[in-house]
């Protein structure tokens, strides 16, 4: 192989490895965001399996960053051992990304069953700042700008609403555009119109879609990298060995 062509391949490898870094950051951030969403809303999920795509995405991101660093090093020097290790890391990334994408897709199509405990948490609302369930409900309604499970009318069927005289819903339901809102049930236009289940599912769908669609992008970059490394390995100058003269 001419030096000019070999340098061109190394340049392509270096650029592709920079893309691996970018994809590693995107995949890692999506996994981290999913874990944070679960941490803040863990009471609303029936089990912890939804964190598996996030864990696999973070592991994949770590291997992607390591692969990008190793590939950049390979673009500067020739090493058969490092080339083999680089290909091995790419295979590991492929397996992790495939698993994360498959699990993310499975969870994305059954989010309704993932949040089955949402209604129970709202029913057990006490309004006390000492109650972790109540704090989680208020924090969720304020952060997601939602009210009730499906809408504000869900609060009318809770024991807390009856204990307060049936006059108002939690203040966390108040739309921030109405500073004078005090949660009065007979003024529903001052409350957030959407329920928390829809908002929570939309937020989860958003981050799960990043994990799902991140895999094809990673595979495309990996394919380019593997082709480039294969060319470098195939056209590496052959080292001739000579039998030493015993005399």
Automatic annotation (TrEMBL):
Main subcellular location: membrane
Q: Which keywords accompany this UniProt record? A: Membrane, Transmembrane, Transmembrane helix
Q: Does the keyword ATP-binding apply?
A: no
What membrane topology was assigned to this protein in its record?
Answer: Multi-pass membrane protein
Segments crossing the lipid bilayer: 12-36, 48-73, 85-105, 206-230
- Cell compartment(s), UniProt: Membrane
User: Which GO CC terms are listed, alphabetically?
Assistant: plasma membrane
Determine if Transmembrane helix is one of this entry's keywords.
Answer: yes
Gene3D superfamilies named in the record: Tetraspanin
| SUPFAM superfamilies reported in the protein's UniProt record | Tetraspanin
What's the family? Answer: Belongs to the tetraspanin (TM4SF) family.
Q: Supply the name of the protein.
A: Tetraspanin
Species the sequence originates in: Seriola lalandi dorsalis
Taxonomic lineage is: Eukaryota, Metazoa, Chordata, Craniata, Vertebrata
């Amino acid at each position: 192989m001419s030096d000019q062509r070999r340098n061109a391949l190394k340049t392509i490898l270096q650029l592709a490895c920079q893309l691996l870094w970018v994809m590693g950051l995107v995949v890692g951030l999506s996994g981290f965001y999913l874990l944070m969403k679960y941490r803040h809303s863990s009471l609303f999920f029936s089990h912890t399996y939804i964190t598996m795509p996030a864990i696999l995405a973070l592991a994949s991101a770590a291997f992607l960053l390591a692969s990008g660093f190793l590939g950049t090093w390979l673009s500067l020097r020739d090493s058969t051992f490092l080339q083999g290790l680089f290909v091995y890391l790419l295979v590991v990334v492929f397996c992790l990304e495939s698993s994360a994408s498959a699990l993310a897709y499975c969870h994305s199509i059954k989010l309704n069953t993932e949040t089955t405990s949402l209604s129970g948490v709202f029913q057990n609302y006490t309004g006390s700042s000492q109650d972790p369930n109540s704090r989680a409900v208020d924090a969720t309604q304020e952060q997601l700008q939602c009210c009730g499970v499906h809408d504000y009318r869900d609060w009318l069927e809770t024991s807390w609403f009856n204990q307060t005289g049936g006059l108002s819903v939690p203040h966390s339901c108040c739309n921030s555009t109405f500073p004078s809102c005090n949660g009065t049930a007979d003024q529903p236009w001052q409350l957030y119109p959407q329920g928390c289940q829809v908002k929570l599912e939309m937020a989860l769908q958003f981050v799960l879609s990043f994990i799902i669609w991140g895999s094809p992008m990673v595979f495309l970059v990996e394919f380019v990298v593997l082709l480039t490394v294969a060319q470098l390995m195939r056209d590496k100058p052959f080292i001739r060995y000579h039998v030493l003269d015993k005399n």
